[in-house]
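Proteins fold. Shown next:

***
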Amino acid sequence: MSQDHFKIGDYVTAIYKTGKYIGEITDVRPNSYLIRVLAVEKHPMQGDLHNPKQVDVAMFHQRRALAFREQTNVPKNMVREYKDEVPDYKASLKAAVQKMKETLLSEDTPWSQKSIEMLEELERDYFK
């Protein structure tokens, strides 16, 4: 299905910044879709997006996943059809954080260690 043929109510995956989400289209705009987040497929990377995998940056950003039912504009070329059952938001968020931590642990760099610290802080907030 071409990215231009989605309609309101369709379920899609959407890449926003460095995260990937499962959501529902709530509005169709000329160059983007407004998407309501229903689950997290990939947690956003931590740090400075303009200097990926670098620790010595002006500000090492903590990047939260978009919240359940939060709406965001996503360019049409970053949206794909989603056909499976939509997972539970909290469970999907937990799995996405765990998967990212496992990937970071295998890298063992100053950037990955700082990213793990940020993710653990986010986990304490996400799963109170």
The longest strand covers residues 32-42. The two ends are 39 Å apart (CA to CA).
